[in-house]
């Protein structure tokens, strides 16, 4: 398995190859600063399209990209109807239900509309309760998503405009009053394609998309650019973003880090996702392993979104000053200072409530944080754990203890959560010390009634503070307080008769034991 340095070098090599493959795409009149494509308009290569970009291209002609719009409904899940941007007759004969809603899904670089995740998302949307009349249209621009990367970046400008033409034609054929129930979902480059579509709809047809969801929008060529060049919150009435790989390219990051929507979700901090490390990736040859690792964080965004359509738990994310502040337990109560919004598909309903209540405005953005699991189902529920080390005579006599605290939550049905360490590394706990941490566990359907606590202790030969020659490793915990974000509950549990937690000996802590606390 490769390490992080090897992965970074591989990614840099891949990006260089993306740029160099086939050289620069040239068409007649390469010296021009503007190129026009029939009724889709003209595309400039001047500012701001040169900002923070190593090169610049015109979009390829539409016929070269062979753009298709396979369209699915509950009546035709397996065999799609293929639409074209400006073919009115195909739209009339597609038997599209005007009640909607209407979904558009776009892939990113090196992909196509046939990908399994797109079919999974399509089925999840069609299966959603209340979506009997839903139509899902795939923006399949595989002919334009191939290397070099800079050319694919240019191509989405034209594909976005073409998709705006399709939406306008559907709007006219179905005699709709607006496009409020049109939802464009784009991954990576597809997210910015959605932005171009939304912008063109406003500029050319005076229509505004109801919603755009950007799934880890691509960073290369889009980071630190003006809003015209990338997806931003002016491109639809509601723009929500899920950031999952927001790191610099030299650190193997592919997603944009800037908050660019009305609501920006940063699960697990938005850059590195659980389960995506080299050690957790299955074997294979070097190149395959590297690409799996590099892509893992980036694709988590659409995996999260697909799960959010019919989630196993609320998928709650909380507004906070930073992810570090969130992990430290500084944001645990959903209130006017810390909004709580479900990540993904169902985020709009909560945002609309906040907006209609005058609590947010469309010119601002909300950054929210959450934690997920390393594999499916990813959804977790959050608890702030407050631990107080006893300041009793016994505790002070023992002095500071070095180790890790492991907790397991148990509900009324005796269902146990997964085991969670409060800290990844061994640390010192001093008598009287209070520590706060956020943890996330699988939802068992009920809040916990009691907690099983374990003390994990490791001796370090080079650190005398960890030596235990005459006494067993243990820690005196006065209490644990658990505050639930999702269930809005608080419980405080204590060890029975103030007994210490001895290394590798599970200790049950319950609320009724707190009466013995001095």
From TrEMBL:
Q: Does the keyword Transferase apply?
A: no
State a GO cellular component annotated for this protein.
extracellular space
Name assigned to this protein? Lipase domain-containing protein
* Alphabetized SUPFAM superfamilies for the sequence: alpha/beta-Hydrolases (SSF53474)
Is Metal-binding a UniProt keyword of this protein? yes
Alphabetized GO MF terms:
metal ion binding; triacylglycerol lipase activity
Q: What is the lineage of its organism?
A: Eukaryota, Metazoa, Ecdysozoa, Arthropoda, Hexapoda
Location relative to the cell? Secreted
């Amino acid at each position: 398995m490769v390490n992080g340095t090897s992965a970074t070098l591989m990614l840099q090599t891949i990006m260089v190859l993306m740029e160099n493959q086939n050289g620069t795409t040239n068409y007649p009149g390469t010296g021009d600063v503007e190129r026009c494509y029939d009724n889709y308009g003209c595309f400039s290569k001047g500012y701001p399209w040169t900002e923070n970009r190593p090169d610049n291209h015109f979009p390829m002609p539409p016929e070269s990209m062979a753009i298709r719009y396979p369209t699915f409904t509950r009546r035709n899940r397996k065999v799609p109807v293929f639409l074209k941007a400006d073919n009115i007759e195909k739209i009339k004969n597609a038997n599209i239900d005007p009640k909607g809603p209407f979904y558009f899904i776009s892939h990113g670089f090196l992909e196509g509309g046939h990908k399994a995740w797109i079919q999974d998302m399509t089925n999840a949307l069609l299966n959603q309760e209340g979506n009997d009349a839903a139509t899902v249209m795939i923006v399949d621009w595989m002919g334009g998503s191939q290397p070099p990367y800079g050319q694919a970046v240019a191509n989405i400008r034209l594909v976005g405009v073409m998709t705006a033409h399709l939406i306008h034609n559907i709007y006219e054929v179905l005699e709709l009053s607006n496009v409020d129930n049109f939802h464009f979902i784009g991954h990576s480059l597809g997210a910015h394609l959605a932005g171009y579509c939304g912008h063109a709809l406003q500029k050319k047809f005076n229509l505004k998309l109801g919603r755009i969801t950007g799934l880890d929008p691509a960073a290369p060529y889009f980071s630190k650019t003006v809003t015209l060049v990338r997806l931003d919150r002016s491109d639809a009435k509601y723009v929500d973003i899920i950031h999952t790989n927001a790191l610099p390219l030299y650190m193997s990051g592919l997603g944009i880090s800037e908050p660019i929507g009305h609501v920006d979700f940063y699960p697990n901090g938005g850059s590195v996702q659980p389960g995506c490390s080299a050690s957790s990736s299955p074997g294979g040859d070097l190149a395959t392993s590297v690409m799996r690792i590099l892509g893992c964080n980036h694709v988590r965004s659409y995996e999260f979104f697909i799960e959010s359509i019919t989630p196993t738990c609320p998928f709650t994310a909380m507004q906070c000053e930073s992810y570090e502040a969130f992990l430290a337990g500084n944001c645990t109560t959903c209130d006017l200072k810390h909004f709580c919004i479900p990540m993904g598909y169902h985020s709009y309903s909560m945002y609309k409530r906040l907006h209609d209540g005058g609590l947010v405005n469309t010119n601002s953005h909300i950054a929210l944080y959450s934690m997920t699991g390393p594999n499916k189902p990813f959804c977790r529920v959050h608890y702030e754990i407050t631990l107080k080390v006893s300041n009793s005579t016994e505790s002070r006599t023992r002095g500071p203890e070095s180790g890790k605290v492991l907790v397991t939550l148990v509900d009324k049905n005796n269902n146990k959560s997964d085991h969670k360490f409060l800290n990844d590394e061994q640390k010192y706990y001093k008598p009287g010390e209070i520590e706060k941490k956020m943890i996330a566990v699988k939802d068992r359907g009920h809040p916990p009634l009691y907690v099983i606590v374990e003390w994990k202790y490791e001796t370090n030969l080079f650190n005398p503070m960890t030596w235990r020659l005459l006494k067993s490793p243990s820690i005196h915990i006065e209490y644990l307080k658990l505050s639930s974000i999702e269930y809005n509950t608080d419980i405080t549990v204590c060890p029975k008769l103030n007994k210490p937690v001895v290394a590798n000996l599970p200790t049950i802590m319950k609320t009724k034991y707190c009466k013995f606390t001095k």
